[in-house]
């Protein structure tokens, strides 16, 4: 029996289908013991430390630069072979590209997500199309931004992307040019000014829990989509839609998320492990197994499958345009820590503790300073 230790995140979307698959694969000669950590741990825990303890690690793409710098992961090309079909499959949006860095692929996408809009359909009939519509709605019903943890910076990136400025991942540059940064802060401020207190401390899961309950919260313009909330067994289903645009027909502004499975440097790669990894991203698994066991697939074929979509309350068709438009975050070594610091700056700006000039100056300095130690090959 080939035994491996895996780490994923503690939500049904992140663990139930992997745990169910472990039962099947134990009969095929591979035993994977999946452990979990919190969403906050998933977003912020140093990847090098995790790779010392686990063989398979479910991670988010901003950690790739840190992993390459630490030399703690095996390239998927080395694990499966550069010509393996798993690397040629079509995944939703930039999911596969998000794990490609320094000439190699460091994780296989198993879950695709992006910041989308979410609403209580009993109070908001249809999602607002533009940011101006969002501001008007915020004057009528309780609306909240997703700004806890790293999400303030991610919402800032999404607003800037709607303005035509994707995050810049280059030495010596600010993440967002000053003009678009100012406009993005203005968009977020205009909505946040009407938000009820307390929601700014909630992570995406908690915000969606509030939308699905009898809480007054009615709409969130940018929050990572969870298919589980579109098909709730208890509570009201949450209606998901596209993220807002600047004007009708303009670009949707969103930032991609999701997860990939990476193989740590300590792992002994066997034929059984290769078969398991291929199975995780096979069309049948992504279209049938993952949706059946509370997961959210990464393969475009699953997102485009009419039966999968119908069973998910039209979650995939309602948000497909957004995930296909979603931009990448920076991935250089040191970025995950800078992401947390950048979010604190955005929150301070939204709270009125920093004016736009000071916030933009601090964000620019942070982007530049956080890259100074980056060695060649991890940019």
Main β-sheet, in a few words? 6 strands, mixed
Which fold name corresponds to the CATH topology of the largest domain? D-Maltodextrin-Binding Protein, domain 2
Shape: globular
**What is the count of distinct domains?**
2
Helix content: 40-55%
CATH superfamily of the largest domain: Periplasmic binding protein-like II
Q: Give the overall average pLDDT.
A: 95
What is the β-strand count?
11
Count up the helices: 16
How much strand content do the residues show?
5-15%
Spatial separation of the terminal alpha carbons: 39 Å
Computed structural class? alpha+beta
User: What is the CATH class name of the largest domain?
Assistant: Alpha Beta
Q: What is the CATH architecture assignment of the largest domain?
A: 3-Layer(aba) Sandwich
Cα-atom Rg, whole angstroms?
20 Å
**Secondary-structure element order, as H and E?**
EHEHHEHEHEEEEHHHHEEEHHHHHHH
Q: Uncertain regions: pLDDT < 50 for 5+ in a row?
A: 375-379
Protein name: Carbohydrate ABC transporter substrate-binding protein, CUT1 family
């Amino acid at each position: 029996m080939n035994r491996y230790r895996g780490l994923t995140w503690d939500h049904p979307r992140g663990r139930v289908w992997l745990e169910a698959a472990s039962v099947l694969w134990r009969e095929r000669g591979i035993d994977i013991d999946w452990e979990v950590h919190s969403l906050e741990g998933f977003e912020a825990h140093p990847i090098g430390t995790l790779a010392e303890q686990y063989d398979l690690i479910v991670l988010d793409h901003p950690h790739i630069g840190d992993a390459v710098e630490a030399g703690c992961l095996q390239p998927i090309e080395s694990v499966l072979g550069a010509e393996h079909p798993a690397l040629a499959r079509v995944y939703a949006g930039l999911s596969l590209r998000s794990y490609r860095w320094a000439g190699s692929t460091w994780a296989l996408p198993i879950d695709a997500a992006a910041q989308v809009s979410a609403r209580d359909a009993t109070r908001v009939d249809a999602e607002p199309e533009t940011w101006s519509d969002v501001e008007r709605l915020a004057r009528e019903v309780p609306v909240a931004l997703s700004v806890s943890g790293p999400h303030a910076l991610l919402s800032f990136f999404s607003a800037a992307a709607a303005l035509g400025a994707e995050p810049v991942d280059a030495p010596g540059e600010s993440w967002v040019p000053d003009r678009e940064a100012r406009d993005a802060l203005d968009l977020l401020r205009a909505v946040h000014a009407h938000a009820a207190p307390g929601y700014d401390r909630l992570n995406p899961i908690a915000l969606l829990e509030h939308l699905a309950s009898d809480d007054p919260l009615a709409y969130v313009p940018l929050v990572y989509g969870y298919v589980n909330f579109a098909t709730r067994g208890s509570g009201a289903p949450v209606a998901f839609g596209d993220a807002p645009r600047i004007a009708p027909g303009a670009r949707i502004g969103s930032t991609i998320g999701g997860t990939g499975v990476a193989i740590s440097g300590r792992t002994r790669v066997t034929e059984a492990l290769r078969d398991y990894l291929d199975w995780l991203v096979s069309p049948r698994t992504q279209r049938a197994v993952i949706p059946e066991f509370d997961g959210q697939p990464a393969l475009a074929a699953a997102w485009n499958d009419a039966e999968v979509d119908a069973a998910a309350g039209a979650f995939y068709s309602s948000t497909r345009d957004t995930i296909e438009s979603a931009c990448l975050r920076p991935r250089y070594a040191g970025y995950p820590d800078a992401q947390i610091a950048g979010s604190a700056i955005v929150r301070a700006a939204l709270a009125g503790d920093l004016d736009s000039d000071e916030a933009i100056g601090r964000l620019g300095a942070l982007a530049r300073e956080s890259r100074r130690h980056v060695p060649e090959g991890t940019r």
